[in-house]
Structures are given as structure tokens and as C-alpha cells.
From TrEMBL:
Residues 45-177 form the Glutamine amidotransferase domain. Transmembrane segments: none annotated. InterPro entries: ChyE-like (IPR044992), Class_I_gatase-like (IPR029062), GATASE (IPR017926). This is Type 1 glutamine amidotransferase. GO terms for cellular component: cytosol.
Length: 230
């Protein structure tokens, strides 16, 4: 099964030098499930020619807001709507979670209670508490009519959404390994933007195992599930 990676941003240069860019993180996360990958840096206006160029699509995180004025966002929303109409499965992570919701009629805003950085626990339907790394202030604040909530936390009400067998999206970052998020915390530690106690706690929690492997299983199962012809 071929998965098209729609990459919506770039890692910080210092992080990419050690750990690769976003695409490499997803290939490591999903590398044991028999997928092949094509990568498109949509943030740089590199788009697939057709929604049928892959068997499924994965939309990555981004430093940008889904509601911001960037050239790649309108065509990416169009692509999402076309793939959705054609029943081609999509997975969205963080920005991808938000962008898919926005494209399908939801609403994304900055959360007035600030940032989530580092290890957070979410209640996932069918799995109980799942711990994953997060990095966001924006959230889905209004859910599209076709979406079902499958994960939430006290900080993030709509942390996971599923749209039948057509889209599976989550707010946290299963592709963020502890070494990656530790680098980010160290490089971005700035008391004018992030609460310093929160950042120090996040750095401490980055030494603790999380459940990224369980989410990798979930993502792979979503892509591979049998689907009826539309």
C-alpha cells in the first residue's frame, strides 16, 4: 500500500540535521507495516497531480496555523475535499488534524488556555489512557458534522476524530520521538512565549516512555482496513 506524505512544514534545521525532516519521522513511525511512501512538500507548493496517486494520504504537522493566509492552504483544503469525496483514506496529525476538520466544515482557533507541550495523556475510545507527545496552541473548536470524537483530554476536547473509514485525525504527535521533542524544547525555550515551568516539566517527561507504538498500530490499521467500493 502506497501512502502519500503531504508535508506541511519543515523541522528546525538543528533538529533535521540530527533526526531528519518530518517525512523521515513518519517513515520511522510506520516503517514496520509494509507501506511504501511518496513524499510531497505541500508547504513548498509541491502537490500530487491527482488524489489517486496514492492509496492513502497522511497530512503532517506544521508551524503554521490552518486559518492563516499561506499559499499552500487553499489547494490543500481542495485536495482534502476531493480525496474525501473519492473515499481515499486520510490521516491527519496536529496541523493535519486541524486542516482536515477545517476543510470539511469545522473550525480551528487558538486555545485561550495556552500551549500543550510534551507528554500529555488522552482518553482514546477503546484504549483508555494513551500518552503521546504534543506541541500546539491551536485546536479544533467546532467538529465537522461527519466526524466522531474518539480521543479527548482536559486540555483538548477534540483530540481525535474519525470520519467513518475516510479520515482518522489526531491532535498529538506520535511521530515526535522523545529525542526530537527534547531538541525542540531546548531550542524553543523562551519564557516570553512558553511558560518555563511547563517547558522544564516537558523536558523531564521526555525521559518517560509513551504510547506512540499504539498509535502507529491504529494508523496502520485505519489505512489497511477493508473498504467497499464507493
Amino acid at each position: 500500500m502506497k501512502i502519500g506524505l503531504l508535508i506541511c512544514g519543515h523541522a528546525l534545521a538543528q533538529v533535521a540535521e540530527k533526526h531528519g525532516d518530518y517525512a523521515e519521522w513518519f517513515k520511522r513511525l510506520l516503517g514496520d507495516y509494509g507501506f511504501t511512501f511518496d513524499t510531497y512538500y505541500v508547504v513548498d507548493m509541491e502537490f500530487p497531480k491527482d488524489v489517486h496517486d496514492a492509496d492513502g494520504w497522511l497530512l503532517s504537522g506544521s508551524p503554521h496555523g490552518a486559518y492563516e493566509d499561506h499559499p499552500f492552504i487553499p489547494p490543500l483544503e481542495d485536495f482534502v475535499r476531493k480525496a474525501y469525496a473519492e473515499h481515499i483514506p486520510m490521516v491527519g496529525i496536529c496541523f493535519g488534524h486541524q486542516l482536515i476538520a477545517q476543510a470539511l466544515g469545522g473550525k480551528v482557533e487558538k486555545f485561550d488556555k495556552g500551549w500543550a507541550v510534551g507528554r500529555h495523556e488522552y482518553k482514546f475510545e477503546g484504549h483508555g489512557d494513551i500518552a503521546l507527545n504534543a506541541w500546539h496552541q491551536d485546536q479544533v473548536m467546532q467538529v465537522p458534522k461527519d466526524a466522531k470524537v474518539i480521543a479527548s483530554s482536559d486540555f483538548c476536547k477534540y483530540a481525535g476524530l474519525v470520519y467513518g473509514d475516510r479520515a482518522y485525525t489526531i491532535q498529538p504527535h506520535p511521530e515526535f520521538s522523545n529525542p526530537v521533542i527534547s531538541e525542540y524544547i531546548t531550542l524553543r525555550r523562551n519564557p516570553e512565549i512558553y511558560d518555563d515551568d511547563m517547558m522544564l516539566q516537558a523536558l523531564e517527561y521526555a525521559r518517560t516512555d509513551n504510547d506512540s507504538d499504539k498509535l502507529a498500530d491504529e494508523i496502520a490499521a485505519f489505512f489497511k482496513q477493508p473498504r467497499k467500493a464507493k
